[in-house]
Amino acid sequence: MKILVIGDSCTDVFVYGQIDRLCPEAPVPIFEPIHQKENGGMASNVKNNLIALGVDVHIISNNNGMKKVRYVDNNSNQMIMRLDENDVCGRVENLKDMSFSEYDAIIISDYNKGFLQVEDIQYICDKYDNVFIDTKKQIDDWIMNANFIKINSIEYKNNAKYINENGKWLKDKLIITRGKYGCLFKENTYPTQDVPVKDISGAGDTFLAGLAVEYIRSNDIMRAIGFAQECTKIVVQKHGVSTV
Fold first, then answer.
1. What CA–CA distance (Å, rounded) separates 207 from 141?
2. Rounded to the nearest 5°, which phi and psi values hold at 236?
3. Are 28 and 64 a contacting pair, CB within 8 Å?
4. What is the pTM for the complete model shown?
5. What are the angstrom distances between the C-alpha of 86 and each of 71, 81, 90?
6. pLDDT tens digits for 83-94?
7. H helix and E strand count, the chain
8. Residue ranges of the domains in the chain?
9. How does pLDDT run across 35-66, given as a tens digit for each residue?
């Protein structure tokens, strides 16, 4: 199995520390760092999950030092702040000169940071089969030829007007993840097991990776959804952005 991942990447940094008192100058907590964890995030996290699932992966992404730094209280596991650095990146170059025919699937992990424009995603969806996409952009006709589109419940609400008025073609493509409430596909709910959650950061990346892998294996989207949910169930029980 060989998969191409294309999209925006960052470095996810988690700084874990102690909060024992408030600042005397302002009503904010004083954070004392204890240890730090970092790994590839966004499209790179999709890639890392695919590798963990035993897939041969190639990635096309940015490399501009984009970071998401999260500060987390050890006692409560509460994130108290997120600091984003270099949050915009340059556009992919020479896309139309690339050949993607060697891959079993293409995963587009579009965090809308500038690496992929609407025209780029439409070109990939129009030219190649077995395209799975997770996008933060507003959905429109440009995404029509994607095979499957994963969005979360907030993104679904943000796209509700288009989906309700023009999105009949989305019925067989749109998968809506809803956290502990499972996910929705073709108006059917796929429940997930209730587990102790430590961190949901990056869970959507894991879902996308698992979905593509199982669909390539079985050609059964219902099985793929179930497998993706099992993968996600594992990572949300770990601290930080983790792989299955």
1. 24
2. -70, -10
3. no
4. 0.94
5. 18, 17, 11
6. 999 999 999 999
7. 6, 12
8. 2-235
9. 999 999 999 999 999 999 999 999 999 999 99
